[in-house]
Design brief:
6 helices, single chain, globular
Length: about 160
Amino acid sequence: MPKGKSVTIKLPSSDSEHSEGSPAPLESSLSSLESELGGSDKIPKPSGEAGQPGHGGYNLEDQLGWGEDGFKNLKFVNKAIKKHLDTTKCRSQQDRQALDIVCNLVTAKFPDMDSFENCWPILDLIQMHLKYLSSRAQQKRRISGSSSRAAKGEKSRGKLPKSKS
């Protein structure tokens, strides 16, 4: 849950107005107002799924507005994913602590990522990369499965019993 922002407005006051260490009335009012309105200066996640612009989703590169070169710098995320996450599982099945580690590493390297609510671009990048890795693994399994079946078929043809003529 996002923490409410706190704004302190210094007004001339006497010690009798509020005790030291407690929020000034204006600070308290702004914090509670913001939490009621749900306001945040962080960039909200667009609706839909990243990588699905034609199907109600959005293009992550366009949403970040960093251009192709800026987006290429995020290859660091792929390395962090391979190092800290189980690449055989989708994002929803990942260990929460491992996801937090990746988000913290990326935010430390790219402080601008902290401008987004709940690190949504990082989580989207994680989801897209895990989806890519799992589809590649499935392709490899299919290819190796079909080549091993073909090899077995060739061997079995060579082992046919000789006919008695």
